[in-house]
Amino acid sequence: MYVMNLSEVTERISRKLESSGAQPDRQKIESRLRRLVEEFGVNIAEAERTVTGDLAREHNLPNLVTSSSDLRPINEIVPGEWVTIEGKIVSLTPSFSPSIAQNGIIADSSGAMRFVTWTRANVPAMGYGHWYRIESAVVDEYRGTPNLKIHSGTTISQMEEGIPFIPSITPIMELKPGVGSVRAKVIQDWDVLHERMLQTGLLGDESGTIKFVIWKEEGKEKLEPDGVYNIYYASVDEYNGRLSLALNTAMYIADEGDIEVGRNATEIQGALVHVAPGSGLIKRCPVEGCNRSLSRQNYCPVHEIQPNFRYDLRLKAVLDDGERARNVLMQRDLVESLVGISLEEAISIAESNPLGMDEIFYRVRNSVLGRYYTCSGGEFAGRMLVDSCTPVTFKPQELATLLNRAGGEAA
Amino acid sequence: MTPQAAFEREPARRVFASEFRETRYQFKEGDDEKSPNYVIFPTGIRSNRIFVVGTLTEKQRQGEQNIFYRGRVIDPTGTFFIMAGSYQPEAMQQIARIETPAFVAVVGKPNLFMTQDGNCLVSVNAESISVVDRETRDLWVLDTARETLDRLDVFGTTEDSRKAQEEYGTQPDLYRKIVYDALTQIQM
C-alpha cells in the first residue's frame, strides 16, 4: 500500500519538475519521501509538499514552491501555478481533438475557469453539475486566458455537493478574457455570415456593449431580440484587442425586466480635416475571417493574391474639434449615406471610369472634406469606430448665445 | 496648452483672418530638425495647423518650373492668403479645379515670411482645399467665435497667452469686438 502510494507521489513530483524543465532523479525523490514517511511519521500529503518544495529550491524553480495542496479560490489563480481546487462543473463542451477527453468550465463561489482533461491523463470523466476536488492540476495560458490542465499527475475526487453559490455577474465593461457571467439585453441581431454560426449580434448592459456569438450545436437556442438574459459562464475571447462573448459554454436564462443600455460610445463634433488613403472603394480578402484590405494588385498580406476579392466602402479620416485631432473609421453603410452613393453604384463607376477606384476616393473626399460632423462610436486602438455620423446643422440659438458672450462685456 | 504627444496629429486651430494677419511670433518646440514649428496667435494659443472656411475670391497660377497657386480666402474679418505649391500636391490639384468664387475649407500650416524691408507676410501653406457650402461657412464662424472666446476667457492664465501678451500686448476686448462683428455678419 505504502509502496504504491509512494511511487505515485514520486511520479507526480517528477512530472511537476520535468514540466518546468528540470530532470529530477526518481530514486532520490522516492527515498526522500520514504525517509519522511517511514522514519519521521510524516503523512504522505505533507511529505509530498516538503519534497516538492525542497526539490524546487534545489532546481531553482520558485513557482513550484507554492504548488502546495492548499485549496485555492479559482479567481486568484494565475498561469504557471500548480493548484488544488474544489469546484462545480458548470459547462462541458464537445471535444474537437482525440487527445482531449473533456473540456469545459469549473466554477467555485469566487469565479470560473476553463479546463481541459487530456485523454492521456486517464482520469474518470467528470459530470455536469457535480462537484470535484482537483489536486495537482496545472494552470497555463491558452489564447490569453488561464486554463486548467488535468494531466496524469492530477487527482480528481468527486465531492458531496459544495456550498451553493450564484455566479457573480460582471458589468460588460469590466469583463476580462476567460469566463464571465453577465445580465444583458440583446440589442442587435446581425446577419450570420458563417454556416457554423447560429447567431451573432450585440449584447448590452448599463456599462456598455459587447459582441456575442453562438455556434451551431445541438440543444443551443437563439436569443430573442430585445430579450434580457442572465448568461452564466460565457467564454470571453479577445481578438485584436476587442472582447467578444461565445455563448456555447454558457447557460442562458431569459430574465424579467428591461435594461437601460449604457452607451460606452463617446461623441465628438468637429471638422473633417483629412481623408486618408485607403478610403473609398476598397477590395477585401475573401478568406473566411480575414477581411483584410487588398493592395491594387489584389495582394493580401497574409493570403497573397486573391482574385476573388469582394468590394467594400469605407472612410478613414481625421475629425478635428480644434483641441484634438482624432482618427475615425467609418464602414460601408455610413459612407453610403454620407456620400449618397451605394456600393453597387461605386463599383460600376469604378469599373467604367478611367480613374477606376481613385474616382470613388475623390468623390468620397470631395463630399466630406472640410465639413462639420457629429460622430459617435467606440474608441479602439487610437481610432474611433464610428457607429453614427450626422452632419452638423446651423442652429440660430448658438449664434445668439455667442453674440451674448462676445458682446456682454464689451461695448 | 501642453504640446501633444509625438504620435498624435496636431489639431487645426480656428482663427479669424484679422487675428491671423497680426501673427508675428514663431518658435520651434525642441532642438530636433523635425520638431514642429509653432506660431502663437495674439489671443494666446500655439498652432502649427489651422482650419479656415471662407470664400475663395481669387486664385493665380504662378511660376514657370515650380508652379504654385496663390489664393485669397475671405472671412467676415479679413483675408487669408493661401499658397499651394508642389510640396502640397493634393491642395494644388484641388485649387486648380475650383472656380472662383466658391466657399472653400482650407487645412494648412501657418507661414511667416519676413520681407527685406521688415514687413511680415502671413500666409497659409494649404494641405487641402475643398469646396463646401454656405452652411459650413456659417458653422465655421460659430466654431471660430467659440474657440476665440474660449481663449480670451483664459487669457493671462496660460503659458501661451502670457507669451502672446508679451509679444503682442493683446487687448482682449478688441478681439471680443472682432468676434462680435464677425457673428453679426451671419444672415439669420
What is the CATH fold-level name of the largest domain in chain A?
OB fold (Dihydrolipoamide Acetyltransferase, E2P)
Helix content of chain B: 25-40%
Shape summary of chain A = elongated
Query: Can you write the helix and strand succession of chain A as a string?
Result: HHHHEEEEEEEEEEEEEEEEEEHHHEEH
Rg over CA atoms of chain B: 16 Å
Mean pLDDT reading of chain B: 90
Major interchain interface with per-chain residue totals: A-B, 30 and 39 residues
Distance between the termini of chain B: 34 Å
CATH architecture call of chain B: Beta Barrel
The low-pLDDT segments of chain A are: none
Overall 3D form of chain B: globular
Radius of gyration of chain A, in Å, reads 29 Å
Number of strands of chain A: 20
Main sheet strand line-up of chain A: 1-2-3-5-4
What structural class should be given to the helix and strand makeup of chain B? Answer: alpha+beta
Please indicate the count of domains of chain A.
Answer: 4
- Work out the helicity level of chain A: 10-25%
Distance between the termini of chain A: 103 Å
Please report the first level of CATH classification, the CATH class of the largest domain in chain A.
Mainly Beta
- What are the segments of chain B in which pLDDT stays under 50 over at least 5 consecutive residues? 1-6
Textual characterization of the structure:
The complex is a heterodimer of chains A (411) and B (188). Chain A is of the alpha+beta class and 411 residues long. Chain A folds into four domains: 2-65; 74-158, OB fold (Dihydrolipoamide Acetyltransferase, E2P); 172-254, Nucleic acid-binding proteins (OB fold (Dihydrolipoamide Acetyltransferase, E2P), Beta Barrel); 266-391, OB fold (Dihydrolipoamide Acetyltransferase, E2P), CATH 2.40.50. Chain A has helices spanning 2-19, 26-40, 44-58, 62-65, 332-339, 343-352, 357-368, 396-408, and strands at 82-93, 100-108, 111-118, 131-142, 145-150, 155-158, 178-190, 197-205, 208-215, 228-239, 242-246, 251-254, 266-275, 280-284, 299-300, 304-305, 310-320, 325-330, 372-380, 383-391. In chain A, helix 1 (2-19) packs across helix 2, helix 1 (2-19) packs parallel to helix 3 (44-58) and helix 2 (26-40) crosses helix 3 (44-58). The model of chain A has no long low-confidence stretch (mean pLDDT 86). Chain B has 188 residues and is of the alpha+beta class. Chain B has a single domain, classed as OB fold (Dihydrolipoamide Acetyltransferase, E2P) (Beta Barrel), CATH 2.40.50. In chain B, strand 5 and strand 6 form a beta hairpin. Chain B is globular, with a radius of gyration of 16 Å. The chains are: A alpha+beta (411), B alpha+beta (188). The A-B interface holds A 271, 273-274, 318, 320-325, 327, 365-366, 369-372, 392-394, 396, 398-399, 402-403, 405-407, 409-410 and B 4, 8-14, 51, 53, 104-107, 127-128, 130-132, 135-136, 138-140, 142-143, 145-147, 149, 173, 176-177, 179-180, 183-184, 186, 188.
